[in-house]
Each structure stands twice: as C-alpha cells, then as structure tokens.
Write a structure and sequence with these properties.
This protein is α/β, with parallel strands linked by helices. It is built from five helices and six strands.
C-alpha cells in the first residue's frame, strides 16, 4: 500500500421495493402551463425527490392530475403543436393540432407530455402507469388519501 492512501470498503446502497413508500399526490392543472406541469410530474413519478432515488429502480410516487381540460399553452403554439399517429397502413398517418386534441382527449395531452419526459425503457413503461389524468375535478382514488401537491 502506498503511503497516505487508505483503502476503504464503500458499499453502494440501492433502493429496494420494501424501502419504497409509495405516496399519492393530487395536482390541479387549472391554469398551469403544460410543459412545466409535465416536467414536475415526471420528476415526482420518477422519484427524483426521494432520498433513496435509484436511477434503475421504481422509487417514485403516484400522481393524479385533475382539470386536464383547463391546461394552458401559448395561443400561437396551440396551432403549431401537432400530434402524429399512424395506423400502420399505407397512408394511415393522422395529424391533430393541440386544440383538436384538447377538444377530443384532454387527458392524453398531459399523458403524452409526461411520457415523453420519462426514460424510453421498460422502466419508463412501468412508470407511466403511476400517472392518472382526469378532465374534471372528481377522481376514484380518494381511498389512497392523496396529498395536494402545489406546483
């Protein structure tokens, strides 16, 4: 051993399923900006606020988003933002603007924004199921006693 260098045994601590305390949070999306809301929700679902955060493990919390139909985005941006889908048939591509999506499926707008901020892996597919989005103020998750999350 060289002089002045002391060898220590360092053990990296990884989060386990039993240590993870899944909390439930409710977010009111009324008057919030889409991207800023989605990034905060994605961080909460991923578990980045948790001291036991482990990048390759599910340490996040459950989030319920209410009033998805009252989310805001810049007026000019609402016509520029386009959602593409494809039916896997020739000529099956459909384009919908933000305003069309808000009229038909306002919950999908927030879900897509959050999903695209999560990792594109099996873990990301598992984490997106921790997001519950509703257009109104009512939700069926009152039994979990969700805490109000102010963003």
């Amino acid at each position: 051993m060289k002089s002045g260098i002391k060898k220590t045994n360092r053990i990296t601590k990884f989060a386990t399923r039993s240590e993870n305390s899944n909390k439930w949070f409710v977010v009111d999306a009324e008057g919030k900006i889409l991207g800023r809301l989605a990034s905060e929700v994605a961080k909460r679902i991923r578990g980045k606020y948790n001291p036991q955060y482990t990048p390759n493990a599910d340490t996040g919390d459950w989030v319920v988003v209410l009033n998805a139909d009252k989310i805001k985005i810049a007026d000019k941006r609402a016509e520029q933002k386009v959602y593409l889908t494809h039916s896997l048939y020739p000529g099956g591509q459909k384009k919908r603007t933000f305003t069309e999506m808000m009229q038909k499926h306002p919950d999908r707008v927030i879900r897509l924004a959050v999903k695209r901020m999560l990792p594109k892996t099996k873990l990301g597919n598992k984490l997106i199921n921790k997001l519950k989005v509703y257009s109104g103020t009512e939700h069926p998750h009152s039994a979990q006693n969700p805490a109000v999350l102010e963003l």
